[in-house]
Amino acid sequence: MSRLKLAQLRTFRNRITLLRIRSIDPQLYLTQVVADGVTYDIADEQGISSFRSQNDAKKPFVGLGIRTTLLSHRSSYDEMIGMPSSCLLYTSDAADE
């Protein structure tokens, strides 16, 4: 998977079809984008960018013309009670709001 630095995001304006926000922990979010059919992990100067809230994870992408946002959250709760692992997905078609 390719990496895209936060500073490069503006060059992908109106080419990003999907913003994926992955909830790793209650206060840890990672982001990926799909642009021109390629998936990119979003990075900063230190490596993969992480954010402390869902809102903070969305801020760098405002105004980029993103068509769809997907929030995914994996919960270990189901496994703890003996059920199969699950993943909650939330989508929005208004990423720039």
Total count of strands: 8
Strand content: over 45%
Rg (C-alpha, Å) = 14 Å
Return the average pLDDT rounded to an integer: 85
What summary fits the major beta sheet?
8 strands, mixed
General form: globular
The structural class is mainly beta
- How many helices does DSSP assign? 2
Query: What is the chain-wise order of helices and strands?
Result: EEEEEEHEHE
List the quaternary state of the chains.
Answer: single chain
The portion of residues assigned to helices is: under 10%
Which regions have little confidence, pLDDT < 50, spanning 5+ residues? none
Distance between the termini: 28 Å
Quickly list its features.
9% helix; eight-stranded mixed sheet; 97 residues; mainly beta
Polypeptide structure, described:
- The protein is mainly beta and 97 residues long.
- Helices cover 9% and strands 49% of the residues.
- It is built from 2 helices and 8 strands; from the N terminus they run E-E-E-E-E-E-H-E-H-E.
- The chain has helices at residues 54-58, 77-80; strands at residues 2-5, 16-25, 28-35, 38-44, 47-48, 50-51, 68-75, 86-92.
- Strands 1, 2, 3, 4, 5, 6, 7 and 8 form an 8-stranded mixed sheet that branches.
- Strand 4 and strand 5 form a beta hairpin.
- The longest helix has 5 residues, at 54-58.
- The radius of gyration is 14 Å and the shape is globular.
- The mean pLDDT is 85.
